Amino acid sequence: MLHRASTLAIVAVLVGTAACSTKKKVLPPPPPPATAPMAPTMAPPSTSGSGDTGVGTTNLPGSIADFKATSGSDTVLFAYDSYDVDDTAKAILGKQAEWLARYPSVKVTVEGHTDERGTREYNLALGDRRASAAKNFLAAQGVNSSRIATISYGKERPVADGTDEAAYAQNRRAVTVVVSGAK
Q1: Which end of the chain is more exposed for a tag (fewer CB within 10 A), N or C?
Q2: Residue 93 burial (CB count, 10 A)
Q3: pLDDT bucket at 129, cuts 50 / 70 / 90
Q4: Which of 88, 54, 62, 53 is nearest to 73 (CA)?
């Protein structure tokens, strides 16, 4: 009898404990439903002439103005006494090569220039090396080298007057000039 009473007491304690432990947990509210992504907004049409279609541009595709706008520039600059094509020049010449690939009938001349320091002969040779460096880069990008002529003007055709470094830096350049085949 004692055994039965202790068993009932244990069962009563377990039932009481179980009753206390079955409280419902309060869950946080569910997250709000996901919304549909917003449609991207349309960019305004470019006026820089970056496409083949000419839509939204002011430049005729295949024109000299289109070449300059698409390439970013017709000119690449060089460091003092150098004809190395730096990263900035590579980017510009790469865009020129892409444009020239789109218009295979276009022929260009790359003009090499120097600042006024140095002898006439030295500057003509340096201008020739700059023009050749730009030509070689374009040819390496797939432009047929028969479409690219070079000429050196040395220090004879400066774009900036002056005898300071800012003027010299602008005059150390190679300029790609479209000579035929453009619209």
Answers
A1: N
A2: 26
A3: very high
A4: 88
